[in-house]
Specification:
Blueprint lengths: L3 H5 L2 H13 L3 E4 L1 H8 L5 E6 L3 H11 L6 E4 L4 E6 L2 E7 L1 E4 L8 E4 L2 H6 L9 E3 L8 E2 L4 H7 L1 E2 L5 H7 L2 H13 L2 E2 L1 H9 L9 H12 L4 H11 L1 H5 L1 H4 L6 E2 L2 E2 L3 H13 L5 H9 L4 H4 L1 E3 L3 E3 L3 H15 L6 H12 L2 H6 L5 H11 L3 H10 L6 H25 L10 H8 L5 H15 L7 H14 L12
Parallel strand pairs: 2-5, 10-11
Antiparallel strand pairs: 1-2, 1-8, 3-4, 4-5, 6-7, 8-9, 12-13, 14-15
Helix pairs in contact: 2-4, 8-10, 8-11, 14-15, 14-21, 15-18, 17-18, 20-22, 24-25
Length: 477
């Protein structure tokens, strides 16, 4: 197979080719770009390997490029990177690697193209295309990578047991590529993953979570999670999710398998949103069901309070997985806490007060919450799902109606702490917060409007019950 015509479409390959010839360096395009070009997947990252100094080649390419570009050199790794327009090019000298048992950082030596292909993680990532004069455009495929692309197989070039033991992050990468490309992992390779799961202990949490997030962002993330589960990887990296698995039966009453339910919810969210943190909310929405599970002879299985306990579990899970402890974590926590609220509205007469409170509590996360709640409706009974979704349509219409009328989302009561302190000549204290809360609750219940005309007299009445008197009658009353 020859890709001369594809290479000729971009002046980048011509610049790299001429630069390599000027330096007398045997040079190849290698890895993910080659794989994606054959699969017709978009890619803007190109890896080049040369037999010699990749840093020298990168500097020569920058010099010969018609566009201004700076070379970023990583001396410790013997690599260099530069950007040309939207393209990101990385250059490395061909090398061979060996590993020590307690580290995934290799001992690196200069090597040949064959050595470099031997060190690649999977056969589909070991494909190289020559930029050399004598075989320009030709694919160098020593491990049947082309065949595996066609048959949709993830397989290691060398012994998978050694491959995963040497660098156990490749375990996560195998499952990630399988999820992203919808490929199968070859049986012997999968067996080696199972055998080497405990080796993941030497990989940093950040690197593992980076791969996990890529699995979560795949088109159908449940596929990747099933591979993580059946290989034992999920138990190693995220045991709280594994705890959702299984069905218990007492007195012929069973609960659903919350692990597979969670995967269905995740896929449902993935079908309509690429938001990583909304997908994390789908993963964690029922995370506290195992510790809150109880059996009652009258009603069967219950999971009372799992939304509250789940929200309290979110920071610990984020911290353990080295996920960001910022607004993203708070967003996920909020959705986990609120995910039952819209569903509860479906089952009762929808009052303005209930809707107003939901809109206020959800704030800017309201649309995401409704996506999660729709995704959470899973059943083998299609009629039941349709009925619930139709009820959700009513809830959403009511939300729009109340929001348009009251503008309640993220509202702030018109009575501030400053007004309370000035009216009663008091210093900051607990009673100010209590009065503000009473005013907020009254507004949300629809007893008063969020106007000075309604809220100021209500404040005076609240304060009177607490023994406070205004320093003087205010014209606002």
């Amino acid at each position: 197979m020859n890709f001369r015509l594809e290479l000729d479409k971009s002046d980048i390959f011509q610049t790299v080719r001429k630069s390599a010839e000027a330096l007398g360096l045997e040079t190849y395009v290698i890895g993910g770009f080659v794989r994606d070009m054959i699969l017709k997947r978009p890619s803007k990252d190109i890896d080049f390997v040369c037999v010699g100094s990749g840093i020298k080649l990168a500097k020569e390419v920058a010099k010969n490029s018609e566009r201004n570009t700076n070379v970023t050199v990583f001396k410790n790794f013997g690599t260099a990177m530069l950007k040309i327009g939207d393209w990101e090019l990385e250059f490395v000298g061909a090398r061979k690697e060996s590993y020590q048992r307690n580290s995934r950082k290799p001992i690196v030596e200069n090597g040949t193209l064959q050595d470099d292909q031997n060190r690649r993680d999977f056969t589909i990532n070991a494909l190289a295309i020559s930029l050399n004069k004598e075989n320009y455009g030709e694919v160098i495929d020593p491990f049947d990578g082309l065949k595996h692309l066609k048959s949709k197989i993830i397989k290691t070039p060398l012994d998978p047991d050694i491959t995963f033991s040497d660098d156990p992050l490749r375990i996560m990468r195998a499952i990630r590529f399988s999820a992203q490309l919808n490929f199968d992992i070859e049986p012997i390779t999968f067996d080696a993953i199972i055998k080497n799961v405990e080796r993941l202990k030497i990989v940093s949490k950040e690197r593992i979570t980076d791969e996990l997030n890529k699995i979560i962002l795949s088109r159908q993330p449940s596929y990747g999670f099933k591979l993580l589960f059946h290989s034992g990887v999920l138990k190693e990296i995220f045991p709280e999710m594994v705890a959702l698995h299984g069905v218990e039966t007492i007195d012929k009453k069973s609960h659903k398998d919350n692990f597979y339910h969670t995967l269905q919810v995740l896929d449902n969210v993935a079908a309509v949103s690429n938001d990583l943190w909304l997908r994390w909310a789908a993963i964690l929405h029922d995370i506290a069901k195992p510790p809150t599970k109880r059996f009652n002879k009258k009603v069967g299985w219950t999971f009372h309070g799992h939304e509250d306990k789940g929200a309290r579990m979110v920071p610990g899970i984020f911290r353990k997985l080295k996920l960001p402890m910022n607004e993203h974590m708070k967003f996920v926590q909020k959705l986990v806490l609120l995910h039952l609220r819209p569903i509860a509205l479906v089952n009762e007469h929808i009052t303005d007060s209930a809707v107003r409170r939901l809109v206020f509590d959800a704030g800017d996360a309201l649309e995401s919450l409704m996506i999660l709640c729709r995704a959470d409706i899973t059943s083998k009974n299609d009629k039941k799902v349709t009925r619930y979704l139709q009820n959700f349509d009513k809830v959403e219409r009511k939300i729009l109606e109340v929001e348009e009328k009251d503008q309640i989302r993220n509202f702030q009561p018109i009575i501030t702490g400053k007004i309370i302190m000035e009216t009663f000549d008091i210093k900051p204290s607990k009673v100010i917060g209590e009065i503000k809360d009473e005013i907020k609750e009254a507004i949300l219940d629809g007893k008063i409007t969020n106007t000075l005309e309604d809220a100021y007299p209500f404040m005076l009445e609240c304060a009177r019950k607490k023994g406070l008197k205004p320093i003087e009658q205010d014209s606002r009353t």
